[in-house]
Amino acid sequence: MNGILNFSQWANPVVLNENIKAAKAELIKRYAEKNRIEEITPEIEQKATDDRAYNKIREIVKNNDGYVYAFLLFWLDHEASFNDLEELYAKIKENAGSLNSLPMTIEEYSKQDRVNGVNSFEALMDQFHNIEERRKYRWIIDKVNGDLRRSIKSMSPENIDRLYTAAKLIDKADEKAGDFTDPETGIKTNNQRSLLFKSNAFKDGLTYLDWVEKMADGVSNSELSSKIDALRALQPEAGILYNSSGYLAMSIRTEHAQKELCSVANWCINRGRWGEYGGKTAGSLQFNIFNFNLPVTNPLHIVGTTIDSDGQVSDAHDKNDTGVKKDADPASHFTKLGYPKDLVDVVVDTIPRETKIKTIVTGLDIDTSTPINLLLTLVKSMYAVNLDVEEGIRKIILDIIKDHLSKKLSREETFDLFIKYGVLSTFSAKILNILIPSLSDNEKDELLKGTNKIINDPATGFRAIISRFGRSKYPQLTAIIDNENEVKDIILNGNSNLD
Fold first, then answer.
1. Residue 364 resides in a domain
2. What DSSP character marks residue 325?
3. In whole angstroms, what is the distance from residue 72 CA to residue 93 CA?
4. Is 38 part of any domain?
5. pLDDT-based confidence at residue 347 (cuts at 50, 70, 90)
6. Alpha carbon of residue 366 to chain centroid
7. The pTM is what?
8. pLDDT-derived band of residue 2, with 50, 70 and 90 as boundaries?
9. Range of the domain at 242
10. Can you tell me the distance from the alpha carbon of 396 to that of 389, in angstroms, rounded to the nearest whole number?
């Protein structure tokens, strides 16, 4: 028989009688086993059921005998005290309308040895705590549009629980920061209201869940120190441009970094439109500036500015996605937003360098490539860029090697790649020595033989190509040939100095 789920069912005399019978049968069985009794007489039944715990439990449930059997099992098998059972009964009454949302009935919990490794009584009490927690954060579901609400209700219980967790983080952030009154409109706002306003753009529950979780992570990770730590962990997908006096200006170079660092903002580039703004196909830069002197609920707590490939501001939005572009000229735009002069000067001065860095970072697909494919793209790119001149790019590549490759690639993978594609530039040779700092003599010989074949093979080598078409036709191949001896020396002496 299943456990009772609600108070209306308790009135059913059949159910009540079954619970009483089950509880008495359990007491008689255990009494007989304990005393090694084989024949159950009416006298034995009387002795077995004249039990202090049984009588106390009937008193606790106040003659609502539909729970007597389950409560008896909690007492007998799960170390639940009378105080514990009184608390459980209070929870049942307080949450009578939500009992059907429990993963199991009360009786089923009482019959389990453990639930997910936890004492089943404790697991049941945890579920009541979850029900009460969810009630506080029902707004995350109840206040959205009808299509979205129906989609959410079709999601798995695990995904719905994730929504409640996100709602809790958002409410906690609002409690800490308080409401903010927009000086222009006089309207009070906070993260919850902002989220519900933006939720109208969603119809699918899972898409909404992903966005809500990123926003919750953003508002709960808005302190300056934690934001800097998160940014540094993502380098070179993002870079710090300015950090002083409560302002943090950053260059966002990948969609992954945008979502990780700036999910607190209700921007469309956080919801799949990165390519139209900061993406590599747009050829633009994305500069996001946090002002930690303002509460997280203030729309100007974060402003995102997109700068086109021509160096002009094309778009700018505050935290709530309101357009705040002040001027096409970056210096004028940032100044009119009220940022200090030294921040404006630093950010504007970095535009040419950031353009170069963004080109190579996005060209490498650093946020989506596997480590081995990233190294392959990196090795190929070394022959197309004059890294002796491009100091900014040289440094960013070094960061990629240290942060993304050195700890993620095996020696064998790295060695095999350089064997296949050769060591064809001084920079590439130094990268090889960083990734494999102790090449054996045999490994050096194998690398030199492979590279020599690529350059000097009579039929397909670079020298053969240059001899047929001339040095001016393929300047990159010419540079590789000219540097051949220097590359050989670097491999032999193990030089890895990139300064």
1. no
2. -
3. 18
4. yes
5. very high
6. 17
7. 0.48
8. very low
9. 221-351
10. 13
